[in-house]
Amino acid sequence: MAQQSKSKAARKTSAWFQRHSNDPHVKRAQKEGKRSRAAFKLTEILDEHGLKISKNAVVVDLGCAPGSWSVELARRVGPGGIVIGIDLLPLDGITGVTLIQGDFDSPDGQAALAEALQGRMVDLVVSDMAPEMAGDKLVDQMRMIGLNEMTLHFARQYLRPGGDILMKTFMGEGYDAFRKELGLSFKKIKNIKPAASRKTSSEFFLLGREFKAEAALSVE
């Protein structure tokens, strides 16, 4: 039985690698020197869903590894803006981005983020985070919702009034309740499935527009 299980895992790994290597977005990312195919998810959302990032904006990228979103964000805010990326994993440096290795939901991570922000409020919070998959659909779903809740909590602390949030999520247990919670703090909520997301993936993105700071204070 153990041998059969190992063989099945090997076949899955091989199948994943085959899909990955043949993915047109992976090939495009390699050709254009992107850190990952995820860059195209962000650029599509920014360009096609009215999420404009002004020059000099302040953006925080939660769970930023491998850094492809931070690279794109830095290009848009320009030298007068601030892009801060934080992740548990170490990253190679990115021009125009302040990188922090740590847990954004920990006291140390919060202190490092506050120092990097230099007293400025945040215009946009983004997160392409996903949990470490356990292989149990319910467990994985609840871990995803947990990350969503931490991301929202961070946004309520640091977003300026009228700011925006963008985060990855999964459809499933806990999603409806979380979406309602998100609606307490943002005037508009949109579900987005970018073309760069694999059709077989359960991921999609929640875009919250126009942060209601006063409302957020009442629910924290």
TrEMBL record:
Organism classification: Bacteria, Pseudomonadati, Pseudomonadota, Candidatius Mariprofundia, Mariprofundales
Family that this chain belongs to: Belongs to the class I-like SAM-binding methyltransferase superfamily. RNA methyltransferase RlmE family.
Subcellular location: Cytoplasm
UniProt cross-references to Pfam families, sorted A to Z: FtsJ (PF01728)
Biased composition (Basic and acidic residues): 20-35
GO terms of molecular function: rRNA (uridine-2'-O-)-methyltransferase activity
Residues reported in the UniProt entry to bind S-adenosyl-L-methionine: 67, 69, 87, 103, 128
GO cellular component: cytoplasm
Function field: Specifically methylates the uridine in position 2552 of 23S rRNA at the 2'-O position of the ribose in the fully assembled 50S ribosomal subunit.
PANTHER family: RIBOSOMAL RNA METHYLTRANSFERASE, RRNA METHYLTRANSFERASE 2, MITOCHONDRIAL
Gene3D superfamilies: Vaccinia Virus protein VP39 (3.40.50.150)
GO terms of biological process kind: cell division
Catalytic residues in the record: 168 (proton acceptor)
SUPFAM superfamilies named among the record's database cross-references: S-adenosyl-L-methionine-dependent methyltransferases (SSF53335)
Location of the region described as Disordered in the Swiss-Prot/TrEMBL record: 1-35
Gene: rlmE
Domain annotation Ribosomal RNA methyltransferase FtsJ: ranges: 35-211
Chief place where the protein resides: cytoplasm
EC number annotated for this UniProt entry: 2.1.1.166
Keywords, in A-Z order: Cell cycle, Cell division, Cytoplasm, Methyltransferase, rRNA processing, S-adenosyl-L-methionine, Transferase
Protein name: Ribosomal RNA large subunit methyltransferase E
Species, as recorded: Mariprofundus ferrooxydans PV-1
Catalytic activity: uridine(2552) in 23S rRNA + S-adenosyl-L-methionine = 2'-O-methyluridine(2552) in 23S rRNA + S-adenosyl-L-homocysteine + H(+)
